[in-house]
Design a protein that fits this description.
about 325 residues; alpha/beta; Conserved hypothetical protein from pyrococcus furiosus pfu- 392566-001, ParB domain; 13 helices; about 10% strand
């Protein structure tokens, strides 16, 4: 039995009033100074790692988990409300199988403490919200310029924004006072293409673009055709009428575009001048028949309830009447 074990036993075996003697007292062992320094160094290293980690999180270099309900859309929306539902469902399936592999980018809300604004990742937020999950996000200090550039570059890299979404995004930035060079950078286009996007955005009213939706299969030439057509008098009224049709909301976004384009291109046919209806009356003043002329048709009407027999009588004599007419009106032949 070791002295240390014996000392412990003696400590608990002695009565409450018995103090350990000099013979039973275990001498205190000293810890080497090198071990103390090593322990201090370990704590210092852990503390440095912790501070470095905190700084990385603060700088947005590491993602954190956020409650989707605390995240607001970008103030410069680049997507229409009718997002591709299949894409969101695919994201949800990926979240459940692999987790969220790519974090979103947000900034602290400039006016509401504790809330955030998205730069990119709207669909990932929607998928996480519908699944009841938190969303991984980089939180960074972003000015409006940096936010829209990051937003535009991310979406341009994926090439999943439709032409009209890019057009309306470019117009929103233009009207927001952003420089044209920044708009070009955000959309990864040259000056000429940026001008085309903005011009189409100006020509197509916002309400109409929203009514049509993303129109993923409709490119710049067709949207330009619509923009040009809307310059004609009455075209916008035709477009609005097309959007109020009962079947409009049941069409796909691409088909809604086609319906509007057809509507504004439809030629207004001048209404035919109505010839006054001629009436034939009996000697007693009773109306016998009427003659109405519309377009290329002459229509004789006789009241069936009262004069059906007379109508048949007239029909039987029409060939004779026609021959007499041709004899008296030679110019009518041929």
């Amino acid at each position: 039995m070791s002295k240390r074990t014996q000392s412990v036993r003696n400590l608990f075996a002695a009565g409450p009033d018995e103090a350990p003697t000099a013979d039973t007292r275990q001498p205190m062992q000293r810890v080497a100074s090198g071990a103390v320094r090593s322990l201090k160094d370990t704590f210092s290293e852990v503390e440095r790692d912790y501070e470095e980690l905190k700084q990385k999180v603060a700088d947005g270099a590491l993602p954190i988990d956020l409650d989707p309900s605390l995240i607001d859309p970008s103030p410069f929306a680049d997507r229409f409300a009718d997002q591709d539902a299949s894409a969101v469902e695919a994201l949800k399936a990926s979240f459940l199988e692999h987790g969220q592999e790519i974090p979103i980018l947000v900034r602290a809300h400039p006016t509401e403490i504790g809330r955030y604004q998205i730069s990119y990742g709207h669909r990932r937020v929607r998928a996480a919200t519908e699944l009841g999950l938190k969303v991984k996000a980089y939180v960074r200090e972003l000015s409006d310029d940096r936010l829209v550039v990051a937003q535009g570059i991310e979406n341009s890299a994926r090439e999943d924004l439709t032409f009209i979404e890019r057009s309306m995004f470019a117009l929103k930035l233009e009207e927001g006072g952003f420089e044209r060079t920044l708009i070009q950078t955000a959309l990864s286009v040259d000056r000429q293409e940026a001008s085309k996007l903005i011009n189409v955005g100006r020509a197509v009213p916002g309400w109409l673009a929203e009514a049509i939706g993303r129109a993923p299969k409709i490119g710049r030439p067709r949207w330009q055709e619509l923009a040009d057509g809307l310059k004609n008098a009455g075209a916008e009224s035709k477009a609005r009428k097309a959007t109020t049709d009962k079947s409009f909301g049941h069409k796909t976004s691409d088909d809604r575009f086609i319906a509007v384009l057809r509507a504004i291109k439809a030629i207004d046919r001048p209404s035919a001048e109505k010839t006054p209806v001629l009436s034939v009356k009996s000697a007693e003043g009773t109306k016998i028949a009427t003659l109405a002329v519309s377009g290329r048709v002459c229509k004789i009407e006789i009241d069936r309830d009262r004069d059906e027999a007379f109508a048949k009588f007239v029909m039987d004599r029409i060939p004779d009447l026609y021959e007499k007419f041709r004899q008296t009106e030679p110019g009518s032949e041929g």
